[in-house]
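Suppose a colleague, Dr. K., hands you the sequence of a protein chain of 112 amino acids and asks what its three-dimensional shape might be. Before reaching for any lab equipment, you can write down a predicted structure in token form. Begin with the sequence itself:
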Amino acid sequence: VQLVESGGGLVQTGGSLRLSCAASGFAFNRYTMNWLRQFPRKERELVASIRPNGVTNYADFVEGRFTISRDNAERTLDLQMNNLTPEDTANYYCNIEGTGHWGQGTQVTVSS
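The predicted structure, expressed as tokens, is then:
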């Protein structure tokens, strides 16, 4: 199993980023996939999830700013993040729900 995140970076408040996760080594189209984030010295928290059929779920703090999507044919998971704030600064990870499989993470930093 391999999950490789990309797309993080430094943006200003109000900016946008699109994170991607390339998946391999498992039946991607059968699993719910998650984006989580982790602040320094804190546990990871769920940002958004998407079921194999495309049904999505978002944390309350997203407030309509992020969109999770998946391409089962390409085995990719994306997170479009708009209207970013400094409070969104964290390391973002993709995860196969119910498993201990994580990517290496991609850092998102939002400057004020």
